[in-house]
């Protein structure tokens, strides 16, 4: 049989010692609270199999004021394994994640945020489209794009450098390297040139130009 009590004003339930326990149907029933819920204390422990939250936004550190100093995040305890988590780190203004509970790695917002990127496998650019439909690999002037092969037991610094477009007649060579660069091509010209310790600004000729040279020689 249901029981309903209604009072005028506030209702306080207090104990001088011990706890307050509310049980519905031996722990199998449901408890409904209508209105805002405020919980004051230093610790809140929710034990349930599944927690369903209708809110689409959860605000952490809701009482933060002034200059922020505390990190906020979500941690996952894994028993005997290290605790992992996701957090906002105030001292560096970055989202960070950890998979070992010790090292926190920045979550990149842009590729250039990682000053020393490493790939564990192949790099695929399928589906990555630049605003002009080209996928670009760029260096910042006056630096070149440097392609260095792995150590072969003899040399480890022999590389191909792709330089920015040049308008001057020659560019300096780099020891043990071949520098490839472009100029505006003329009629029958490839527009591609190489510079190394033996060849100074030699053009990579086209079939048409090679045919002309062969007739002249």
Overall shape? rod-shaped
Number of strands: 9
Detail the poorly predicted runs: none
Structural class: mainly beta
Strand order of the largest sheet: 5-6-7-8-9
Number of helices: 1
Mean of the pLDDT scores? 83
Q: Indicate the percent of residues in helices.
A: under 10%
- Cα distance, first to last residue? 113 Å
Strand content: 15-25%
**Largest sheet at a glance?**
5 strands, mixed
Reading the helices and strands in chain order gives: EEEEEEEEEH
Question: Which value, in Å, is the CA radius of gyration?
Answer: 34 Å
Put the structure in a nutshell.
The chain is mainly beta and 217 residues long. It contains 1 helix and 9 strands. The chain has one helix at residues 207-216, and strands at 72-78, 81-89, 94-98, 105-106, 145-147, 159-162, 177-182, 192-195, 202-203.
Describe this structure in words.
The chain has 217 residues and is mainly beta. The chain has a domain at 145-216. It contains one helix and nine strands. It has one helix at residues 207-216; strands spanning 72-78, 81-89, 94-98, 105-106, 145-147, 159-162, 177-182, 192-195, 202-203. A five-stranded mixed β-sheet has the order 5-6-7-8-9, with no helix packed on it. It has a four-stranded antiparallel β-sheet with strand order 1-2-3-4, with no helix packed on it. The protein starts with 71 loop residues before the first strand and ends with a helix. The model has no long low-confidence stretch (mean pLDDT 83).
What topology does this entry show?
Elements: E1 72-78, E2 81-89, E3 94-98, E4 105-106, E5 145-147, E6 159-162, E7 177-182, E8 192-195, E9 202-203, H1 207-216
Parallel strand pairs: 6-7
Antiparallel strand pairs: 1-2, 2-3, 3-4, 5-6, 7-8, 8-9
